[in-house]
Amino acid sequence: MEFQSIKNAIHYVFDTKEEYENHFLSQGIPAPEIKSDWKEAKELDWVMSDDDRIIQILRRNSMKNTVRSPDKNKHASYYVQTVVGSFVVSKNQKMDTDFSSHLNRYSFGGKFVNWKKRLEAREKNNKNEKAFVYFVAIVRDKPEIAYMKVYGTNNFMYAKRRAYILLKQERIKLAIRKELKEIADDLGMDDRFHLEKAKELIENAESDNVKLGALRTTAEWTGMNEKEDPENPFVPVTDDTKSLDSPEKQKRLLASKKSLTEVKNINE
């Protein structure tokens, strides 16, 4: 959910129907019907936008001057205004709910671009993405909590989906790794430190499970067994996340046990 104020009145954009209905129920009133076609909606109707969010038509007016619509060789007769922007009512016009694409809600402008495509096309992290990196890497928030803080939504599942997409972006991965490396360096915990500690565990730990864990961890660090958890690319995938009958698991366990046996032979 997002919102902005116009003349001291708050106007909302809802992410889901459930969020929309709960908002009205909390005020003790039933939720108004959501119109599926915003182009046919009347003033003050709630509608479904073309990027699948729920928003209210604040104004619907006829065009005072002839304005060419997105339909080739046609002219628009009506337009609608929302808290996000103004949109010509025509066959090919799309209504989006991206505030950043509409610097002036009273002018016709803004280009409808899929959020994910904009995200993937961006070369540098913007202000919100830098804040997201900060909360994930420094504050150690879960990604969905970080997203909710930065982007101002109270919808947990929406935030989880969006945070997952953010974490798949290579530039954001690199930014998080950079922040974590700086912290580790400040603490004197560089790559050599971690590998030396892991080596001590492999050579001296009494438990075979501890030794196997250290072997797997060093393999992750050195890229010998590079895996990513699709839910969080910064948490290594362990054997516990795999099926017991997984052929991949069996191969990895055999490789780890072989390495452990070699370490034992050296020590003997």
How would you sum up this structure, described in words?
The protein is built from 9 helices and 8 strands. The protein is of the alpha+beta class. It folds into 3 domains: 2-112, no CATH class; 117-186; 191-267, no CATH class. The strands form 2 sheets. A 5-stranded mixed sheet has the order 1-2-5-4-3. 19% of the residues are buried. Residues 235-245 and 263-267 have low confidence and may be disordered.
Secondary-structure map:
Layout: E1 2-6, E2 9-14, H1 17-25, E3 34-35, E4 46-48, E5 54-56, E6 59-68, E7 75-81, E8 86-88, H2 115-121, H3 127-137, H4 143-151, H5 156-167, H6 170-186, H7 191-204, H8 208-222, H9 247-267
Parallel strand pairs: 3-4
Antiparallel strand pairs: 1-2, 2-5, 4-5, 6-7, 7-8
Helix pairs in contact: 3-4, 3-6, 4-5, 7-8, 8-9
Q: Residue share in helices?
A: 40-55%
The count of strands amounts to 8
| Average pLDDT score | 78
Determine the structural class based on helices, strands and strand pairing. alpha+beta
Describe the global form: elongated
What string gives the helices and strands in order? EEHEEEEEEHHHHHHHH
Q: Main beta sheet: strand number and arrangement? A: 5 strands, mixed
Number of helices: 9
Strand order of the largest sheet: 1-2-5-4-3
- The proportion of strand residues reads 5-15%
Radius of gyration: 26 Å
Number of domains: 3
* Straight-line distance between termini: 63 Å
Low-confidence stretches: 235-245, 263-267
Features:
268 residues, 5-stranded mixed beta sheet, 3-stranded antiparallel beta sheet, 9 helices, alpha+beta, 8 strands, disordered C terminus, 3 domains, elongated, 15% strand
